[in-house]
């Protein structure tokens, strides 16, 4: 965290010390041990330019260090979730949180709705190999239907598109071409009531 605090990180809006990059920051922290020690002994920095940058921006370095540090003490009563408030009230700390077992159908439905075709296909194949999912159980979940088609090039489920285009009398080849070009609208967060967006 000390190196990042000195060098800054624009992707996380951590300002750092202007003119100090990752290599110089790493060198300084290596020489002085920590950011606090570096700031306390800044007059000992041999290079005049670096010394002035550190001395003139010590407050910025301290602020950046706070921004880099992850908050570890999160009160559970401050976590906002829609339905599981009774569940949260029975917890004493974040360590008490446990993950439920994987619901394969819901995961694959989520991947389908989000358009993660390759990921959906890979997960589906692995689950079927391990016996965690069979085609009949997943077909009953509603998203695939009993006679699902999957594009081998994209791993995308083509059942609903194929049924629509079949009613228009198109050939299978044309249906696949149409499906590859079809643009899907992104799903809405409210479609996933169990995921806190």
Automatic annotation (TrEMBL):
Classification via Gene3D superfamilies: 5' to 3' exonuclease, C-terminal subdomain
Spans annotated as Disordered: 137-197
Polar residues: bias regions: 163-174
One Pfam family from the record: 5_3_exonuc
An example molecular function term from Gene Ontology annotations: DNA binding
GO BP annotation list: DNA replication, Okazaki fragment processing
Residue spans of biased composition, Low complexity class: 140-157
Sequence ranges assigned to domain 5'-3' exonuclease in this UniProt record: 2-77
Protein's name according to its UniProt entry: 5'-3' exonuclease domain-containing protein
Organism: Ditylum brightwellii
